[in-house]
Structure formats: structure tokens, C-alpha cells
């Protein structure tokens, strides 16, 4: 059933069945459901109810569900279980990469305890290896399970060996070809195997032009490569070129989406991954930091304005357009930053140098600034504002738009060079900064024109 | 070579080789490169230079490069070629989905012309079929090429038939199982084939629990399903359940990234897909619309302030905090909207009703509002502001934060129900609206306290 729709009714019914301990009905319900759906259901249940469900599922499914859970739900659930159960019921039935991710969420002591309960030494060893990698590196994304053949084998030998290996692997996307030292040589597509005569040797039919990454390559780079070259799986090699694992696209899809979402969250002033279903405290924790920045910024802004108290006392009409100019600075700056951030993320920055980019941005800024200044000038004329105010607003609009676009282009490029996530530049921080500077420019120009023309 | 890095030097060298018509060197250069890399290079070349490269590539590679090009570069390039070349050199060597996408970019007349030049009637027919689908539907994403076996076949029969079919297909992810009427029954994993005895019948070993979508399902829904269930390929069925095509993950990765990027662009005030490498005019076109909205909003804001001219004349210090309060309204509203937008996108809205969400948002808002009001109150006390101003700023901060979060939560939910992209709510439009309303609340409260306390 593709379109499983989680409803309040469904949960209520399930909870009744659970409290009635109606194991048969529940078991048949669960067998129809995909682990991802069960994970959604789980998030609506109490620990006790969830446990009851878990022990009605076979080990493979229970393990899959655990992998699909949100991190904090999973933590809560696992804390309530003894290490041995976790090891034997869940970890033993997972791909090494999922197992490592989940164990990696626990403290070292618990990690050791669980690993010690895993019967198969190789599995435990694989997981231990993976735990050593940074989770945002190729090594952290890869799974140890893969299918490889030696370059000097013929197809029947390959098939025999693949049968053995296949028991370990969920899905076969590529068959990897290695030499006797385990050095990655290339891939053997199943298509090629189907189309080649049975007696052909791997050496003569494999595809040597294979993309691969070293263990320590960053997750973002991995996703960029798999996305650009439309790869479903990407082999990972060690420093001497030996095949150590493979990264599958489903793990990378998460990286790609999370990257894009992270930028969006920073742009909209949210600190960490937050969902509508999270509780009030988490929501506040995710929002208040940026609001505090905004508050401090606003207070600084008020000081700036305070510094011009005299001129505002004399010409209160100056206050009318403060908000407009400040907001414009914020909007323009955010646009410029967003474009840089996105180009950096997609690796699509073109070949222009930083100076080249700034020069181009100057042109765009001048164009926008001209259009906007003309419009605001026209408005002031029509509204019959006095010459001083009109000149101030027009000149301020022009300078603020130009300044903000350059500032907005430069900051993310700078952050990027400083190895800070450039997306921060599209967040309230720089926007607030632009507000303040815009305000300052406006009032400075204002005091000039009003002292000149009044 | 994974890390092909496009450099200015590389392009210069290539352009020299092209003007020197050094075909051999260029050909050997090109054979080392992945089509996606060649596409990047192409974007730096003139049409003439690009054409020269194209005719040095074999048909398959040329077709792949064309698929990898940015849409507008591809258009420019194809316009300079006769329909027959396009049909025979490119379209004939593409998967039906890529072919349909590319032909779909042209006007009907050109489409017919090209289709008429395709030798294989089936291919032409497949493409014509695909052209009928909305490009944002499952039908628009799918390719006709797939490998299917009948449920009553045995493994040797499957292998024989798969050999024939494999010539059409680039990569084999799943083998689909259909009955004699072509109705999709399930999938047969290659793993299963490897592990089962040769004489077993498909019926007894295939996996009947297969996800599929109807032709008219929206692309967003497709990507949600493939992402949630970690699918590499998703079969597409017609209204009676017959297998008509398959969607592969690489096409969906693009949908996922574009969706996320679209939200980010809307949030940062960019209208259409824009990249740093685009020209000045395109940049201005992408930015000016939101800036105009901001301008109009700012002007309205100035009218609002103008409406309170009297009170500002008397108490210019009111002007100090206008910016702060307005900005706070904008920030808070954007945060609330962003959370709703993201939950809607990830289909992760939880089970709370709209009312439930608003109630929860009230709690969060009250919490944030209290914190921020206390802080701004403390600041005013320390800064020694008079009682009227202190009360105004504190009360305004509280009301604006509460109002903006509710407004920011409600608007995207409303837009979503009206089938308008809710991400619009995080853009400058609602932010500007929040600015203005914030300003109004502030000055209303101000006139109250100042008339009361002064």
C-alpha cells in the first residue's frame, strides 16, 4: 500500500488493540506495513506501547523500524532496553552503516557493552571500524556490505561468489572489481554480465572508469559527486586505493535534503533541525537565539537613531522612511547572500574571481538601486514631500541598496573562506547588520541634506 | 578522475586546441571526461566551439552531454542544429525520459519534425507518449525502458529475456514482474535470482509487496515516496494497473533538491531559479519583484507612521525603537512560517489539527514574548528611558511577538489549503506585512501610554 495515511483514528484503534493485548490482529496489521510507516506510528505511541509492538515484529523488520525512527525517539526507546537485546535483536540485523550510526548516538561505555554482545566478530569489527569515522565523511556514510569480484575470475566463478556475498547485502547496485590486493579496479554492471558470453573473464568486460572517494572526503562533497554523476552507489577506498565500503544513494539523499533544509533554516532564523511536532521547549530553544541577535541589533539600531536625536527632533518626518530604508538594506543583502550561498552549495560558482563577482554585483546593484531610487523619488514628489526629505530618501535608497548588495555578496564569500557555513550570512545576523548600517547611512545623509537645504 | 576541477587555464588551453583544429588531442581529452564534466566545460564555450567538440564525440557520449546541459544552454545549442541531426545523433541515443524532456522544451512544430526523423517507430512512439504527461507528474518523470519478466517464467527464461531487454536499459535496479495482461505484480530482486535454484518459477520467488504510483501522481509526491521508502526506482502504472514505466532516483534527487532550493529562494526573496553565473539582466529580473513589494510595503509603513505624526512630533524618542519592533515582528513571523512550510514539505505535520497547531504556537509565542519583553524592559530601565517609552516598548514587544508568530503560522497553512505554495509566506511579502503591522501596534500602544503617562 503506497499511500499509507497515518490518522488519529488509526492510532486510537491501535492503542485499544494494544491495551487489549490482541497480538494476532496487531501482528497482521504490522506485516502489511512498511518499516517507515511503523516508525511514523511509533512516534505517536508511549514507550510501553512501542515495546509491545516491537516484540511482535520479526528481527529484520524491528531493526528496519529502528533505523527509520527520528534520532531522539530512537534514543528514548533504546535507553529503556538492555544492551544484549539491542545487540542481538537490532544491531545484528542491520547494515553496518545503520548499526554504526545508531551505536554512535550512545556514550562510549554503552557502545562497548553492545559491541561485546554481538556474536559475529566480523560484524562487530566492521561496526567498530565505522565508529572511527567522522559521521560527515565518506567513511561515516559508507556500509561495509558490498559485492566484489576478482578481475581474473570468469562469470560462473563470479556468480558462485556473488551468491555467497549476496546473503549479506540488501540490494545489489554494482558489482565491484578488485585485484588480488583488494585495490579497486572498476565495476561490473549486471547488464554487462547478462550480455557477455559465460566464459569471458572479468578483466575483459569490466568498466575501469569508476568514480570513487577516499574515506575522509566530506559528506557534502560525496553528495555533490553522486548527484552530479547520477550515481546510485559510490565505492569508498582507503589511502592506498583498497575498496573498503560503498555509499548508497538513499543515505546521500538525506544529506542533500538536510543541506538544503539547513540553509533554509539559517535563512529563516532557526538554529537547529526543528519540526512542527517537536515540543514547546525545543521550539523556543531553536528560535530564541536569533531573536536575541535581532534584539541586540535592534537596540544598537536605537542607539544609532539616538545619536541623531537632534535632527529627528527638528524634522520628525525623517522617521517616516527609516523603516523602509532599513528593510530595503535587509532584503537586498539577503538576496545577494542567498545567491552566493546557493552557488557555493551547488559548486556552481562559475569561473569569475571574487573581484569579478563583486564587480558584477556592482552592476546589478546599480541597476536595482537606480530603479528603486527613481520610484521612491517619484513617490515623494507625488506625496508632496519637501526637497530635503525627498533628496534624503532618494540618495539613501540608492546608497543603501548598493552597499547592501556588496556587503551581502562579500560576507558569505568571506565566511566560506574562513570555513564557516556561508548560509549564516542569509540569517538574521547579517540582515540586522544591514538594517543598522542602512539606518546610519539614511540619517547621515538626512542630517547633510537638512542642514544644507533647510 | 573524480575530482575534475574546471579551471580558466583548462578552458583557455581547450580553446587554443579548438582554434588549432587539433582533433586528436581534443578527442583523447574528451574520452577521459565524464559527460557531466564536458557539460560544465561547454557552458564556457561559444556555440561554434561547442559544435566542434560535439562532432568529435561518439553518439552516446554526445547524447549524455546534451542531457547534462543547463536548459537554456541546451536550447541555444539545439536551435543551431537541423532537426534530422538532433533526431539521429542525440534523441535516438537517449533514454525515453531524457529524450521527452529535451523535445518537450521545443515548440510543437519542431517536436513533430524531430519525431518524424527518428527511425525506430517504437522509440518515437514512446517519446510521443511521454510528451503527453505533465512534466511534474510521475508520467513526466518516468522512462519507458525497464526490464520485466512474466510471473510464470523460470529463471533461465528470465535471463534469456533479460539479455534481450538489457540492451535497451542503462542500469538494472529491479526486474519487474507482470502477469499476461501486463499488470504489475511485484519485483524480482537480482539477489533473489542469485540465491534461488535455477528451476524455480518467478511466481514463487518474487516480492509482491512493491510500491508503485499512477501516471498522474505529482512529482513532489513521487519524491516523498521514494525518499521515505528509500527506493532507487519506482514503477509507474496506468489506471488499470499495467506497468507503463519506471522512475529512477537520480531524476527524483533533482526534484528533491529543487523543491528545497525553491523554498530557500522564496525565503530570501528571489523569484526564479538564478545562479551566480547568470547575467546581470536575469539577476535583476529575479530580484526586483520582491524589492518592489518591499518598497510598496515600506511606503505603506511610512503612511502608518505618518498617521502618528502628532505623537512622534511630541515624543521623537518613540522613533528610536520603531525599527527594533518592526524587525522583531518580521523575524518572529518568518520563523513560525518556516517551521510550517518545512513540515508541510516533509509531510511531517504530526496529527495536531490547525487549531492544535495554533494553540501550541501561542504557548511558544508567549514564552518568547515574555523573555524578550523582560530583556527590553531591563534595557530601557538601565538606559534610563522614561516610563511612557519603557511601557510602550515592553508592551509592544510582547504583543508584536505573539501576533507575528500566530500570523506566521496561520498564513502558510491558509496558502497551503488554497493550493498556493506556502513557502511564499516566508518571503518578503509576509515579512513586510509583519513589519507594517508591528509598526502600527507599536505606535498605537505608544499613543496610549504617552497620552496616559505624560
UniProtKB/TrEMBL annotation, chains A, B:
Instruction: Show the CDD domains listed in the entry.
Output: CBS_pair_Mg_transporter (cd04606)
* Chief location of this protein within or outside the cell: membrane
> What is the recorded membrane topology of this protein?
Multi-pass membrane protein
Query: What PROSITE patterns does the entry give?
Result: CBS
Which part of the chain is the CBS domain? 206-262
Provide this UniProt record's keywords sorted from A to Z. CBS domain, Cell membrane, Magnesium, Membrane, Metal-binding, Transmembrane, Transmembrane helix, Transport
Where does the sequence pass through the membrane?
Answer: 288-306, 318-342, 362-380, 392-415, 435-453
The entry's localization annotation reads: Cell membrane; Membrane
Family from the record: Belongs to the SLC41A transporter family.
What does the protein in this record do? Acts as a magnesium transporter.
Q: How does it assemble?
A: Homodimer.
What protein is this chain from? Magnesium transporter MgtE
The major lineage groups are: Bacteria, Pseudomonadati, Bacteroidota, Bacteroidia, Marinilabiliales
